[in-house]
Amino acid sequence: MRTRSVLLYDGDCAFCTSSVMFAERRIRPRCEVTPWQFADVDSFGTTRERAEYELLWITPAGTIHGGAQAVAKLLLHAGGGWPVLGGMLTLPPLRWIAHGVYRLVANNREKMPGGTPACALPASGRRRTHASSRSSAR
User: Fold this and answer.
1) Model confidence at 64: pLDDT above 90
2) Can you tell me the distance from the alpha carbon of 113 to that of 80, in angstroms, rounded to the nearest whole number?
């Protein structure tokens, strides 16, 4: 069993990589940070498709939080004032707003600063619904 949470991100996406590097430098979350391309996603209880679709926070117990809630967990596991912001992102209505903003950015990440055409989600990933991206315990 793992003793630390793991943050899985898209290492092929320049925008995602830059965002994670910023978080490591400035926010300093207490977790392991790994591109999903270098991880055995099956061993984390998830799929390549989900890892392509959203940032994933995986607890030592195997609970998976995706998208905006993965960001919230990252903030909750950091020092300074970041946990306050992370906690706020878990509560309605900020949770709903964060989800919408996350999906908007994720669906257009190739257009974000530092993004490249390689950052684009597959067309099938852009059409997923909110229900299919909910956090789940594994």
Assistant:
1) yes
2) 27
Q: How many CB atoms lie within 10 A of CB 130?
A: 11
Q: Is the dihedral of CA 80, 19, 37, 73 positive or negative?
A: positive
Per-residue pLDDT tens over the stretch 6-41 = 999 999 888 899 999 999 999 999 999 999 999 999
Structure tokens at 97: 């707003």
Q: What is the pTM of this model?
A: 0.84
Residue ranges in 42-129 assigned as alpha helix (H): 48-53, 68-76, 82-88, 94-107, 123-126
CA dihedral 80, 81, 82, 86 (to 10 degrees): 140
Residues 53, 51: Cα–Cα separation, whole Å: 5
For residue 17 the two structure tokens come to 């990589």
